[in-house]
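ARCHIVE CARD
SHELF: 3
SLOT: left
DATA:
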Amino acid sequence: MPSRQALDARAVTLMGVLCAVWSLQQVVLKATAADIAPVMQIALRSGGAALLVALVMWWRGERMDWRDGSLPAGLIVGVLFALEFLLVAEGLRHTSASHMVVFLYTAPVFAALGLHWRLPAERLGALQWLGITLAFGGIAAAFLGRSTPISAPAGNTLWGDFLGLLAGMAWAATTVVVRSSVLARAAATQTLLYQLLGAFVLLLAGAWLSGQARFNPTPQVWASLAFHTLVVSFASFLVWFWLLRHYLASRLGVFSFLTPLFGIVFGAWLLQEPIEPRFLLAAVPVLLGIVLVSGAGWLEQWWRRVATTTSTTGVVRRTPAQTPPAAAPDR
């Protein structure tokens, strides 16, 4: 297999598009919630996407290999994937799409902690610990000081935010199980199919049992289902796996912060959600923490290259009495 490349213009463009698409999930779910409950919509999109993934596997000559020992781990990630989106769907009934996408995308922070505990090769470095500290500080700032308790009834933004945070933890747990089990060696399509089938079966049952199986087939609902099934749950994940096969994962991970950033913008633009100064201030350290946790390896390599280049070009460290040249400020 060829070595993975550093990022080029194509990878940067694709990652920007993917982050925008992923951020729109919560916005579109919220926009169509009056005609189809989010939990029902996620169940239907997962079923449709599972069918498409199965067709791709058939076209490629792939098949689910039940003898590779991946079934127990596959069942676990299926349940966790369903739990994640159950929490997202329920959370969107109480909070804004912009809040949901920020708290959901704390997943890399929780995944880093889980992998640090599970895999010796995934031990956290100083930059990542700094990122985790910043992220948890931002999360605390977002929750502390609100007057309404977490256990308040429907309509409470705090409760929806808390569910979004739990969804991020469920997503992180899925990542930890995949990375530390037989699924780490399984085909990406097989792992994705486990997750989609789990979400379809469990969320469809949950929608019926909770009385959220309503389906009003408006043009907006059909457009939303097409977007979620074809673009989000099928095409975007195939593109993501293609990027992981061709580019360095640490470089791609740096873009994680763009999804919640796009989510805030799209929520305000498309749903007229208010942009609260307090929430924005809390989101800044969360986003910075995500960047440090996801891109610590790349940032350290970049800094070493800068230091090496500086030392080999003969640039010396100036004393306080010296004046730096305007074109080359001191670092």
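SLOT: right
DATA:
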Amino acid sequence: MESKSHDAKPGDYVEISLMKSSYEGTLLEAPENEKGIVLLKLKSGYNFGINRRDITEIKVLRKFSEGKEENFEVKKDREKPNIAMIITGGTIAARLNPKKGGVDWLTSPEDLFKFYPEIFKIVNVVRVEIPFMKASEDMNYKDWQKIAKTAEKLLNDGNISGIIITHGTDFLHYTSSALSFFLRNLNKPVALTYSQRSTDRASSDANLNLQCAALAATSDIAEVMLVGHATSNDDFCYSMPGTKVRKLHTSRRDAFKIVNSEPFAKIFPSGDIHKISEYNLRNKNKAKVDAKFEEKIALVKVYPGQDPAILDYYLKNKYKGIVLELSGLGHAPTMRSRKGWTRKLKEVISRGMIVCAAPQTIYGRLDPYVYSNGREILDTGVIYLEDMLSETAFVKLGWVLGHGEWVKSKEKIKEKMLENFAHEINRRISENEFA
């Protein structure tokens, strides 16, 4: 049955009636090749396609008023602490485009504030910096350097209590690791936060994450930390060390988990902060950026039957270092294997490449002395990085190799890779740190 004529346009909130059912949602633009389909974004956030011939009526419940949104005025309260925000992109800095059914980047700080007014009950946002707007998968070390340099200026501003950095989730743990190494003499909190779900969805995690990040930014935790949902509920967040956190779920609101360590604190939207582990306290230091970085590094996962000749590619292209994700306590195929890695590792290391090892298991500590295979790999000159996350190891290797004064000898490089700069190595892993 053909639907009766209507004046609904993309972006309007409508009710679509069929013979035996009806649906409410936002009318979307139909794709060019599917003009016979009417697209609707439901309240759940999902898009739903309906055959136009099955529709009996489309009723406009609320018109979309494009370009007529009321202005949002940011009011400052002298009784509240001042913070700064660095906006870099990601779902938390995106808004629904009612016509497309997808999201667009927020084009101004005011747009962000319209969606998240709750943080103004906690703090004054007195500075907003937007060094770039990118999805995290499009970032590289130069973007990490830009964020670090922006943060340095804000950290040394006496009018600012702390910093919130909004960021996409996919590669957030690389950025949090980089800032943990790049920002030296840290004097104030640096809280990175995110949103797994966009603001148009009722289940968005953005509001709680930003509220908790604001509380973290005004706390005494002078660390680079990631702040986000501790559970799938809207009850509290964790403040997590930037070097010991990993995204372990594609879509859950509590996707980020601590690995081989504990959170710094629980943060409740009520304002309560419960300390869990030790951290550096707010201080009078002058923060400094040390963002030297060698980009010719790689992260390689070792798997059964893998040809070690893959390392020739990195030698040919003049890579300076590699982090290998090894199995178990730190193993790779050895001389006993048809494609053993022992001889090739000795070769590339003798030719100047730095090779480090991180646990493929994610949790736990490497120990090459338990089995003969591990000892054989250790004897090649591979640097075993204890319990360090492979992503953190990758970032740290680039940072260490970026320092000319440290790369004069392999012994110095090993010393720096095993020096605990930012909680990246936990000397005492407890049973409670495997979850």
